Amino acid sequence: MVTDTRIACVANSALFNHPLLEDAQSALSPALRHTRAVLTTRASALCATCPMRRQCLYDAVVRYDVAGIVAGTTPSVRTAIRERLGWRVPAENLDTLLGLANSHHADHDQIVRARRANPQESLDQLAERLGVSLSTVKRHLRQERNSARRPNLHVVPPSAEQVEQALHDITAERRDSGMTRLAKAA
Question: Radius of gyration of the chain from Cα atoms?
Answer without folding.
Answer: 22
